[in-house]
Design brief:
With 378 residues, this protein is of the alpha+beta class. Helices cover 16% and strands 43% of the residues. It contains six helices and 28 strands. The strands form five sheets. The chain has a nine-stranded antiparallel β-sheet with strand order 16-13-14-15-28-27-26-20-24. Strands 8-2-3-4-19-18-17-12 form an eight-stranded antiparallel β-sheet. α1 packs antiparallel against α2 and α5 packs antiparallel against α6. The protein is elongated, with a radius of gyration of 25 Å.
Length: 378
């Protein structure tokens, strides 16, 4: 194998596939990056057997030559060293060639590295996915839907299914739901799909976070293929595979209250900043709890009291308060996470009592909601 490639393109592809490589793997060859040179260009693959990422660098693009293939072939190189080397090479072009016994030479300018490679034949094959059922979604919408839900997945392995985001496709609507059983994030969007298709799968939160980092901010369509135990995201020159989580996601529709006793409309930014300030004195340990109570004239009082530190009280003027008077306590972190995920300058918070979950959503937008369970404080 021998080819000459533009360094910047190589660095970008290496960084993308590195997101799937981990040092903690039971299969030693997966600590490497697989490099395949063919007539069409160069393909890099990284995998930790949960996530696999394949990045393709075409021979030429828009008439510019990116790779000059001198001899086709394949090799696996230690990801940790290869990625560091590539980043620090002195010139804009890199020559990579495999000599005898998998010895790989990387040359750039006056610099030359010799790395011991591994046999590419031993690298596990990527899942073969039949692409019969594909639905498409614009990249920026996909990234938004991930950002607005993935923070609410559980980080505890006691219920592994909750470490993923539930994706449901029905009647041309994609619904993403994440919950850690103390809070829930839900986002819906219309997508292009065959009307008959329906899916209900759980994608690991970690996979979606990594995917979101790799994708460019544009509105190009991404193809999504879901099979029994894998999901594949296909962007231009990029394949991202993730295994699905096994098991049934809990039915969350029962958790979402349909009626409310108190409805508050506030300016998102003002409210977020007030909660942020109230949480300053509540940082100690687990209990970053703030209290909210409604007082006359549409004023909302937000307070926090930690006996050994001090207390803070702040009033926020709401746009409107309807319904019963209310005192409720909740996690400041959960509230701030939820507010940052919502779009829109004004939000409605619907309460159904001091001990019941409450809902936060943008004014006049039914496609997204956040739900938080209050904290008992006596």
């Amino acid at each position: 194998m021998k080819f000459i490639i533009q360094r910047d393109r190589l660095v970008q592809s290496v960084q993308d596939v590195m997101k799937a490589v981990t040092s903690r793997t039971t299969i030693p060859i997966l600590t490497g990056i697989k490099i395949v040179a063919s007539e069409e260009g160069v393909t890099l693959t990284g995998s930790d057997s949960d996530i696999s990422i394949e990045s393709f660098i075409p021979k030429e693009e828009d008439g510019d030559e990116i790779v000059e293939i001198k001899q086709a072939g394949a090799i696996v190189l230690q990801a940790k060293f290869f990625s560091e080397i590539v980043k620090k090479l002195p010139t804009d072009s890199v020559e990579i060639s495999v000599e005898n016994h998998l010895q790989t030479v990387i040359r750039s300018g006056k610099s030359e590295f010799n790395l011991n490679g591994l046999d590419a034949e031993e690298y596990p094959h990527l899942p073969q996915i039949e692409e019969e059922n594909v639905f498409k979604i614009p990249t920026d919408l996909l990234k938004a839907m991930v950002r607005q839900t993935v923070f609410a997945v559980s980080t505890s392995e006691t219920r592994p299914i909750l470490t993923g985001v539930n994706w449901k496709v029905e009647n041309g609507t994609l619904t993403c739901i994440a919950t850690d059983s103390h809070r829930l994030a839900l986002r819906k969007a219309q997508i292009e799909t065959n009307a008959s298709e329906s899916y209900n799968v759980v994608i690991p939160g970690k996979s979606l976070s990594e995917l979101s980092k790799i994708l460019d901010d544009n509105n190009d369509l991404i193809d999504i293929v879901i099979t029994e135990n894998q999901v594949l995201f296909k962007a231009e020159h990029l394949l991202f595979f993730s295994r699905l989580l096994e098991g049934n996601y809990p039915d969350t529709s029962r958790l979402i209250p349909s009626d409310s006793k108190t409805d508050v409309v506030v300016n998102t930014k003002e409210f977020l900043q007030a909660i942020d300030r109230a949480s300053l004195l509540a940082k100690e340990g687990r209990n970053n709890v703030v209290k909210l109570s409604t007082i006359d004239g549409g004023v909302i009082e937000i307070s926090s009291n930690t006996p050994e530190i001090g207390k803070v009280v702040e009033e926020v003027q709401s746009k409107s308060v309807e319904g019963e008077e209310l005192k409720i306590s909740f996690s400041a972190k959960f509230m701030m996470d939820a507010l940052k995920a919502l779009e829109g300058s004004e939000i409605t918070i619907s309460f159904t009592g001091a001990m019941r979950p409450f809902i936060i959503k943008p004014l006049n937008d039914e496609s997204i909601l956040q739900l938080i369970l209050p904290v008992r404080t006596y």
